[in-house]
Design brief:
Layout lengths: L1 H25 L14 E5 L6 E6 L4 E5 L12 E4 L8 E4 L7
Antiparallel strand pairs: 1-2, 2-3, 3-4, 4-5
């Protein structure tokens, strides 16, 4: 029985090891996102009809705030904050008018 397990297990382990080796070799170098911009980060604040959405774009250093997310399938940005240098005042700006589809 031990001999049968060895005969079955050895080819399986060799196949797994070969697959790992080929995968490691084929993956090339480091993987980086296309372009210089980082992906958006978001956070939902609150719960229920009073839930608000905050979206931060690190490449723009801008935080967009969306109002309570109840009642409509289209939600326009209410205002945004552009974050400058550390220690500087942060000014609130109204978001540009959105498009209606």
């Amino acid at each position: 029985m031990l001999r049968a397990m060895k005969q079955t297990l050895l080819p399986l382990l060799l196949a797994v090891a070969m697959g790992l080796a080929v995968g490691w070799w084929a993956h090339g170098g480091s993987v980086h996102a296309a372009g210089a911009s980082a992906p958006a980060e978001f956070m939902l604040n609150g719960s229920g009809p009073a839930t608000t959405l905050s979206v931060y774009y690190p490449g723009e250093r801008t935080l967009y705030l969306y109002p309570a997310m109840a009642g409509s399938s289209n939600i326009a940005c209410t205002y945004r904050f552009k974050i400058g240098e550390e220690g500087q005042a942060i000014e609130r700006e109204n978001c540009p008018a959105g498009k209606l589809y």
